[in-house]
Amino acid sequence: MQNLEERDYFSDHEILKDPYAYFEAVRAKGPIYQLPESGIVVVTGFDEALEVLKNTEDFSSVLAPQGPAAALPFQPQGSDITPQIEAHRTEFVGGDLLVSLDDRPHAFSRALIGGLFTPSRLKANEAFIAEFSDELVRGAVAKGGCDLIKEIATPFVTLVIADLLGVPADDRQLFMDAIEAGPPPGSLDANDLIAQNQPLVLMGGYFVGYVHDRRENPRDDVLSELANAKYPDGSTPDALEIVRLATFLFGAGQDTSAKLLGNAMKFIVDQPGLQDQLRADPKLIAPLLEEVLRVEGSTKMTARIARKDSRIGHLETPAGTKVMIALAAANRDPRRWEDPQAFTLNRPRIKEHLAFGRGAHVCAGAPLARVEVRLILEKFLEHTSNIELVEEKHGPPGARTLEFEPSFIIRGLGNLHLKLTPAAGFKPPEPAKADKPKRGLFGLFGKKDDKAAAPKPYSTGETRLGVLLADPAATAVLDRHFPGVSTDPRIGMGKGMTLRMVQKFAPEMFTNEALDAIDAELAKLPVKH
């Protein structure tokens, strides 16, 4: 019979159910262990993981999105393979994302977002997050229950990050659908490796339009701030760098928070007496989240590659050695934590866990995740007298059946069906009023005119392609001037853009003369938006 530590962590669905047993089997070989078959170095020790995470001089993050099991796009040569990594960076899956960058590109990109998720900035806007949380939770309690992941967590964190970045309301559902349809980061199916980036590619087509618009017409919002930011040396980032950064923040900003909410609720429901303790003292929710992050954080592992001949602890790691930093194991290292497998509220020095990483690549959105999940849990506990799992879906206490996303990177529930008993005096949400003004998160979108304005005529400068393509008459105009454009998949990727925005990327095709001619015809059409 094959020993547990000899099984393939990156494709074994049984390990998915209980990755902690696998990590403990590997830990028994030592805090640093090189897998005999693959040569991957698995780091399960807390101190050793911290050592690698902080050592950006010797270890590159280029492997982070694809993981260490995928083949390198080159054969490592020499004692310093940094030039090879950079020459082949675009051949790594997600090699140009923030989480993968090294050295100056990483430092400069992090500088651009340094002020976006500060606790002081989030503190000033907790009222809006709390109001939205209240609306969602009261709706769920009024129904008697919900699937926490699909009905609450995903739409909640999506709206928060979307409002933060300034993603138009009309595009948010499309982005949610794209992320839902794509495989999770670190899919156990090796065939999904390339496809895991597709949602970011689709969203990137829209963010191109957002960034160009904010550079030409800055608004009082975060995306305008990001689009017009300068690098530390005063230079202006390329627009595509801002697009990659904003797209990554949107995609990554959902995963951490949504998974944390689900994992936290699992403990709240099944730890005897815990939810009553939290209701009696909501200030305990913050330390609860830190212990959840330690014992079952949203990220199980991250990856590095030794770019120079170096070492981890006692183990020599020649340039080209691939490393799996098992964050979930480091957070249960018995040398660092007393009774590490147990869930212990108010554990000493709990914020030292590695769930959000450490060092240069520490999760930029960690402050946002802590704030939004704390606030929505406060509302769940305020509006209920009891929360329990639906046994028909998940089985009885002590014999739960839980479905986790099939990922070697992410630890997150696919669903969590809750039965919600209202608190005494609970009031269901009031029906939405059509004339009630909506304020964007962080108050960044200004006041809206409540009076209905007459629809503007279609135009190539202001009307998004998605709107034009939804109107057969407008579509016919486009196809007359650019035969086949309405079915071109590249155009389909840019439905959030206007034709004048698209012109920037294909000026020879979309000439001013052609677009002016289209404008003349569009102006004669009845407007349907």
Write up what this structure looks like.
With 529 residues, the protein is of the alpha+beta class. It has a domain at 465-522. Helix content is 43%, strand content 7%. The chain has helices at residues 13-17, 19-27, 46-54, 82-87, 103-112, 119-123, 126-143, 148-165, 169-181, 198-216, 222-227, 239-270, 274-280, 285-296, 327-330, 366-382, 391-394, 465-469, 472-481, 489-492, 499-503, 512-522, and strands at residues 32-34, 41-43, 59-60, 145-147, 302-306, 310-312, 315-317, 322-325, 384-389, 417-422. The strands form three sheets. A five-stranded mixed β-sheet has the order 1-2-8-5-3. Strands 4-10-9 form a three-stranded antiparallel β-sheet. It is globular, with a radius of gyration of 25 Å. The model is unreliable at 192-197 and 434-452 (pLDDT under 50).
